[in-house]
């Protein structure tokens, strides 16, 4: 049902020019195979380790310090602006669809009593030039209110994760998906742990979408009481079949058609080598193999992963606070080559959005570089800076659409902090 809430529209051309620069663990029996069609992933080949310890070759090195903001580059015409408030309800901007709608979460303002934050049940909606369409199921009477904190969109499908937790430690979750006009509950943390009480996984717990499946990271009981491991759960978007654990000792899922990619380091698999990371691939048959791998220095970690159209991207954080130059890799699975982008902060909170051969990212609410960037992996990789929004540094790309944060004159006033959505001309 559409509400009579519409986003402001304008005609604005954003013109940008960029700098250019000439062993396997099996999937548990019965686990859902990743989504359906077309990934562009390379066929299995013997991995050759380069002198730097990576199994791929870096062909271009860029730096965000080189990103250009003006000139005759890509052009986007503004189609909508998503406000920071709808009435008195704060608006969380969670994802962007290829149709140019923004996935948002709204709720009445939280209450704080005796230092305890009491949240209200969130409503997840699509908001765009055509208005607002709510996706959430009706709330269950007596159930604890939940906030929607992560979402993903692919085609006409949207998935999101809700949690009753208001701190950084509790990770109880419920995952929903809306597709074909129907919203379904895909699973809850009670399906992996008695009572549904699990700690939050490291970093993001965002779901990701293949063509037929949704996947999300979760903590799972590991033997003795109060001990947990890390895994990736999944279920078909249409709700058929059960929710299952797809792979254990894994984190940072990213889906590309039939393929599920994930990260394995000591953070997710304590027995794994401390100086190495693997980007692993579970294909449509359930076979699990190394797709790419590299070396980690002490203190480094893989903090983000994204995949689309055969391009897989990840971030290796900087080792310590003195070294504020994380590295992002955009790896071409078919060519086994990568473009490296040197970032201007540690990369601890950076989130990558991927669509085809275009990537967008910002560092969210983290400290450090509040810039938002777009990387076009054409014949000559081109890097653009979209703007800066310290504490609200979010950028999304989906199909022909791009979205990025713009802060108002008073950043403390949420009403003036908007997400600008534009369509490529």
TrEMBL record:
Which region is the signal sequence? 1-24
Q: Does the keyword Signal apply?
A: yes
Keywords assigned by UniProt, alphabetized: Signal
Query: What name appears for this protein in its UniProt entry?
Result: Lipoprotein
Upper lineage: Bacteria, Bacillati, Actinomycetota, Actinomycetes, Micromonosporales
């Amino acid at each position: 049902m559409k509400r009579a809430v519409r986003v402001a529209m304008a005609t604005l051309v954003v013109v940008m020019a960029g700098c250019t620069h000439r062993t396997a663990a099996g999937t548990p029996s019965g686990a859902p195979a990743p989504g359906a069609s077309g990934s562009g992933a390379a066929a299995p080949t013997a991995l050759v380790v380069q002198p730097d310890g990576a199994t791929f070759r870096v062909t271009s090195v860029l730096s965000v310090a080189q990103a250009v903001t003006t000139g005759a580059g890509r052009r986007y015409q503004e189609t909508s602006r998503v406000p920071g408030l709808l009435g008195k309800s704060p608006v969380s901007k969670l994802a962007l669809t290829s149709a140019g709608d923004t996935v948002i979460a709204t709720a009445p303002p939280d209450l704080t009593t005796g230092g305890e934050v009491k949240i209200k049940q969130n409503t997840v909606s699509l908001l765009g030039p055509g208005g607002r369409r709510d996706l959430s199921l009706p709330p269950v009477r007596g159930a604890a209110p939940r906030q929607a904190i992560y979402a993903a969109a692919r085609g006409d499908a949207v998935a999101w994760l809700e949690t009753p937790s208001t701190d950084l430690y509790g990770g109880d979750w419920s995952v929903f998906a809306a597709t074909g006009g129907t919203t379904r509950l895909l699973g809850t943390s009670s399906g992996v742990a008695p009572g549904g009480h699990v700690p939050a996984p490291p970093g993001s717990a965002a779901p990701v979408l293949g063509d037929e499946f949704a996947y999300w990271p979760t903590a799972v009981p590991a033997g003795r009481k109060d001990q947990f491991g890390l895994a990736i759960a999944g279920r078909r978007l249409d709700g058929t079949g059960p929710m299952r654990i797809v792979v254990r000792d894994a984190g940072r899922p990213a889906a590309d058609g039939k393929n599920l990619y994930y990260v394995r380091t000591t953070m997710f698999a304590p027995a794994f080598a401390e100086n190495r990371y693997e980007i692993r691939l579970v294909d449509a048959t359930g076979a699990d193999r190394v797709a790419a791998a590299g070396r980690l220095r002490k203190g480094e970690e893989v903090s983000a992963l994204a995949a689309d159209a055969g391009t897989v991207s990840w971030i290796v954080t900087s080792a310590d606070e003195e070294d504020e130059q994380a590295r992002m890799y955009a790896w071409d699975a078919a060519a086994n080559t990568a473009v490296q982008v040197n970032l201007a902060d540690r990369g601890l909170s950076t989130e990558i959005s991927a669509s085809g051969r275009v990537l967008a990212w910002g560092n969210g609410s983290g400290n450090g570089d509040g810039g938002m960037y777009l990387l076009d992996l054409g014949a000559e990789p081109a890097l653009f800076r979209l703007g800066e929004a310290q504490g609200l540094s979010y950028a999304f790309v989906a199909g022909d659409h791009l979205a990025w944060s713009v802060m108002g004159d008073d950043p403390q006033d949420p009403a003036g902090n908007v997400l600008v959505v534009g369509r490529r001309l």
